[in-house]
Amino acid sequence: MSSNSAQKIANFTVPGIKDASAEEAIKLLGDRMVALIDLSMTLKHVHWNVIGPNFIGVHEMLDPQVDAVRAMTDTIAERIATLGGEPWGTPGAVSSVRRWDDYSLGKATVVEHLGALDKVYSGVNADHRETLQKLAKHDPVSEDILTGDLADLEQFQWFIRAHLESSTGELPTQKATTEKGAARAASNA
């Protein structure tokens, strides 16, 4: 496997797309596929390791997010295949191309995990927006898929932030640069 999470292997792509644009879309989608696989596993990890007051509400809030993110991953993988690519979603492929550190909290309180998840969603969502700008030049269908995904991901982040935001609109995680820093800031708020 190449260093990408997806590569073009077919001698064709969908009609109307140049090979170079299909190859770039496959590369960009492969990166987003890895991010979503990682996000779904992180959300499930938090689901298993969250403790404290409001545990059940957060525990139950995360499963629908996991399911939705897994569905996004499947749609992106199938788009990669449609474009003539080969999606790679094995654990080894995911860990070999991931550009970010593993989620840094184990068992922790609701507010700590939500603070850390705010940082996770900020990274995923910012990268999705950046990728959308690049996809606009290559494949409007792939761009549309990611646009729909981003709307859901931003809503999920809003769900997380609703637990953290003060009545004056302050978000304690805003200035944190790490997950642990965000967890600490949320816990101290």
From TrEMBL:
Would the keyword Membrane be found if you checked this record's keyword annotation? no
The answer to whether the entry has keyword Membrane is: no
Region span, Disordered: 169-189
What's one Pfam family the UniProt record gives for this protein? Ferritin
Give residue ranges for domain Ferritin/DPS: 26-165
- Which UniProt keywords are present, listed alphabetically? DNA-binding
Q: Which domain of life is it from?
A: Bacteria
One term of GO molecular function: DNA binding
Q: Which InterPro entries match?
A: DPS_DNA-bd, DPS_DNA-bd_CS, Ferritin-like, Ferritin-like_SF, Ferritin_DPS_dom
User: What Gene3D superfamilies does this protein's entry cite?
Assistant: 1.20.1260.10
What NCBIfam families does the record point to? PRK09448.1 (NF006975)
**Entry similarity comment:** Belongs to the Dps family.
Its protein name is DNA-binding protein
Q: Which organism is it from?
A: Luminiphilus syltensis NOR5-1B
Gene name for this UniProt entry: dps
